[in-house]
């Protein structure tokens, strides 16, 4: 993948929900599937592959925050800033839109989110967005933690 410049787009979170009991064949399958993806992701991080944030949300309830993927990525060895960039500037690069999206800059299509903490210290804070600016309009979430 590295030689060819192939992007790795994992989606880890769906493999952690709705598991059967551990002592059942289905439960063993569920845990083995998650473990396989953990190994693959760790290898990709260690090989410095180009990793972009996955959004295969169909594998989990639509009401669950896709931001939980950040804690999975960080929990499996990715630095918090790398996880954030996988969803912003690296995603833009993969789409050949570097400088147009995934960056806050003049002329860029920049939607902005804000949280009430430092996601570099606790990446799970990204699951609780307090503020969104989209096309210049401001939206606040007074219910976020």
Would you kindly provide a written description of the structure presented here, covering whatever features stand out?
With 145 residues, the protein is an alpha+beta fold. The chain has helices at 25-46, 68-75, 80-87, 89-94, and strands spanning 7-8, 50-51, 112-114, 131-134, 137-140. It has a 3-stranded antiparallel β-sheet, with no helix packed on it.
Uncertain stretches: none
Number of strands: 5
SSE series = EHEHHHEEE
Shape: globular
Overall average pLDDT: 88
Q: Fraction of residues in helices?
A: 25-40%
The largest pleated sheet is described as: 3 strands, antiparallel
Sheet-strand content, in percent, reads 5-15%
Strand order of the largest sheet: 3-4-5
* Helix-and-strand structural type: alpha+beta
Give the N-to-C terminal Cα separation. Answer: 39 Å
**Computed Rg:** 17 Å
Count, helices:
4
Concise synopsis of the structure shown:
With 145 residues, the chain is an alpha+beta fold. It has 4 helices and 5 strands, in the order βαβαααβββ. It has helices spanning 25-46, 68-75, 80-87, 89-94; strands at 7-8, 50-51, 112-114, 131-134, 137-140.
Feature tags:
4 helices, 145 residues, globular, two-stranded parallel ribbon, 5 strands, alpha+beta
Question: Topology of this structure?
Answer:
Elements lengths: L6 E2 L16 H22 L3 E2 L16 H8 L4 H8 L1 H6 L17 E3 L16 E4 L2 E4 L5
